[in-house]
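Standup notes
- HV: blocked on the assembly model, inputs below
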Amino acid sequence: MLLPLDMLKAGEHADVAEVTGDPGWVVRLAELGIREGCRLQVLQAGSPCLLQVANCKLCLRGSDCSQILVSPVVA
Amino acid sequence: MPPVTVKIALVGNPNAGKSTLFNALSGLRQHVGNYPGVTVEMKKGRFTDRDTEFELIDLPGTYSLAPRSPDEMVAVDLLLGRRPEEPRPDVILSVVDASNLDRHLYLTTQVMELGRPVVLAVNMIDVAKAQGIVIDAQALAKETGLRVVVIQANTGAGLDELRDALRVAAGAAAPAGGPKLPDAFSDEAAALGEKLGAATPEFLTRRAILDVGGYTEQWLVGTHGPSLTATLTATRGRLAAAGCAVPGVEARARYGWVRAATARAVTKPTQRAVTWSDRIDRVLTNKVWGTLVFLVVMFLMFQAIFQIATPAKDLIDGGIDYVVGAIESHVTPGPARSLLTDGVLRGVGSVIAFLPQIMLLFAFIAILEDCGYMARAAFLMDRLMSKCGLSGKSFIPLLSSVACAVPGIMATRVIEHRRDRLATILVAPLMSCSARLPVYSLLIGAFLSSGFSRWVPGLAMFGLYMIGFTVAPLVALLLKRTLLRGAPPLFVMELPAYKRPSLYTVARRVHDSAWAFLKRAGTLILASMIIVWAFLYFPYKDAHGQRYETLIAEQKEKADEAKERIKEVTDAGRPVPDDLEQISTDAVREANRLNAEWKRGSYLGQAGRAMEPVFAPLGWDWRIGMAVLASFPAREVIVGTLGIIYEAGEVKDDEAEKTLQGAIHAEWNRDPAQGKYTIAIALSVLVFFALCCQCASTLAVIQRETRSWRWPAFTFVYMTVLAYVAAFATYQIARFITDHV
């Protein structure tokens, strides 16, 4: 089951299934490590939200997060 | 035999420790290089190792070589040897963070396609070790086909090995391996390459296909005509049909290759260890606690700047007064002396007095930035800033502008979106800076203190600061909806791990900002001060052809003599005769009268009187108008100018300032037209000063940061119009209230 990233709560883990939207934005996120198949954790929900991706923390705005589809994982 | 010079370009993600490595390699042998047409600064350094001379060039940190702006294009062009002023680098040094290897290697794979030998420096190995990450450098070298050196730039570990690797790499072949994009893509790139001709390097041809709407595409459409847009769209369509759609194809190929290369060379713990940064962040990024800590940090910062810098400022002011006094007692009065004391020393001195504040502010900002806290502040403030069309990254520059707009505008360099950066630069001067304080305190003291409750002065001061805090976001929003319209930039920001700030980085920032400031004070401000001085000095003879300076000096001498006599008499224990007191006060009054007459007749005074109709709607007479005109190069000038005009002599200490307040108060009340509306006039002047752009250094720094005269001109015009309209409204409303209450 896929959810937009902004539906997750703080502390939840998920695998990124698909990043949609403007190609430039998709590339930008891929450069920062958010791409299909990567695992992330939501540290803070809301806008801006705080994510842990591999070994770095990224913050994004909620409206931009809705373009990232994830499948939640029980860590 | 002269040493061979090997040119090395440093490439890496932001926060990969690139600057630390650059400093460790080149030490003090470095300078900043600017490039025509762009705002980026690239540091260059040199070092010698055995008989090889190395030249390092530190490119701005970037996540990838997909240029999105002219600034990023400069870096790519430089690496490809397409900049006329910069030969192509011989070796590319790719710096990566050992604890974030996968993501950092993404950029390395792009660097491998530039056709130059690449050395991979795996930095911050200590941080990785602490997290249980083990990196086998030999295996990594074998898998990637690159020369790999494990280093720790902040301690200097591994640097000898790195220098050896760089020397060996110079003249070696470019890496042969690297990620392979699907054949369909290579064929399309080759076909497009033929169409574009040999002038376009293969690297850029591929970028044009991959980066939809990127800068490479824009640039090529600009040189090859709009038909290229259709060609690129068709190419991307065919690729999508062949199952390798842009943009996913690049990320898949690169990350796939990186994963395979690191699989054997890097061992990671299954569970990511919780680091110190994580623990600190639980507090500092928390909406409630983080915001509280942020407010405390900001308060301490401004408090410290005020507490530490004020004595230093007073010291500079005192030093200038001493020099002025020395010159006045040794040089005969005349244009030369006046130019030196009033124009150069007092004019430029009043500006240089702000140097300690600027250095301290920059030290604080450099420390907060270097330890990683600034990113957290931007994260916390993003919600607030997004309401006015900006992002969290604009917050710190605006906050710095409360001390001084010059460093504030320089701090906008961290904002990557051009439109956001411009909007921030254009509204930064609206924040109430420290130079407005003297004006505020003078007029509030004169008109809003006596006869009011004791809360009024403080509230008035607070209100004036609030004008800036509310108008700046509104103007930013207006600009973002009109002149700087565009899709809201997607906001994504990395929060780097906390680290101890490096003394070297902080010292360098402080030194650079101080030097830039002094250079401006010595050129632009000096020139404008001399002009204002000249307009206030000439013509310098009265109706009888007597020099005002000589006449004033005579009166001052008279007063001094009388004071001497009074002292003699009191020392002898005799009563002071009344006429002696009278002589002294009369002489002082006469000197001030002469001074005022001189200023009234000066060119600036004439201009003030000619422009009276312009000032009338704001409730100002020619004297206020003239003082405001004189203070356009630097707003602090108004206090001194008002002192000269209102016959209160020079304003130097609190006592004299009270006299000036009293003098202005008395003058305004004496005039039947003004007397009734003194408070309305004071408010109108205050509001004007709160919004007007009366600071040549701010305009100069806007010119420098935007590389154009258009934006400083725009800033000056919009702020002056805004200030005029607001002062007009304030005066008329206040007058209406005075009449009807």
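- HV (later): unblocked. Residues 650-656 of chain B have pLDDT under 50 and may be disordered. The two ends of chain B are 91 Å apart (CA to CA).
- Next: hand off to the docking folks.
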